[in-house]
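Exercise 3.2. Students should predict the tertiary structure of the chain below and write it as structure tokens, then compare their answer with the key that follows.

Predict this chain's 3D structure.
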Amino acid sequence: MPEMGGIVLAFDYGMRFMGVALGESRTGLVRPIDSSECRSRQSRWAFIEQIIRDWSPQHLLVGLALGSEGEEQLTTRQCRNFAKDLQRHTHLPVTLIDERYTSLEADRRLREKGVSQTERRHQEHAVAAALLIEDYFQRSLEERRHLITLVAHDSPAIL
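Answer key:
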């Protein structure tokens, strides 16, 4: 079973923008790292590969875009495909996490800090990724262990 401690990276995946956040599971510290406008598959993977090299994570999270009632949509399939590709490319455990309303919450937090609208658009995706890690860290250790085990043997697990 993968180690429960160490670095967790979360990806707020989008066809155009991708946000990344870092979490340290032993300390519970979470912080946004970066957002990138990825106009091509090649630029997206170059961005991801650099982040993986820089942080050497033990586990990856991917936000799963569901409709407001939890229904699947086109972006849900895109997130699932991205998570599968991420797992194949990195050979790391990947967990999908429901990302409903993370962008709204990220925007709210940035507004409260007085961040300008232009800067909010850039930072929002990384802050949304940080919210995914916060949600993951609030889960019980047993629930996380179970999900990681599923990921190691199957397709990406969903929280």
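Discussion points: The longest strand covers residues 29-37. The chain has a mean pLDDT of 84.
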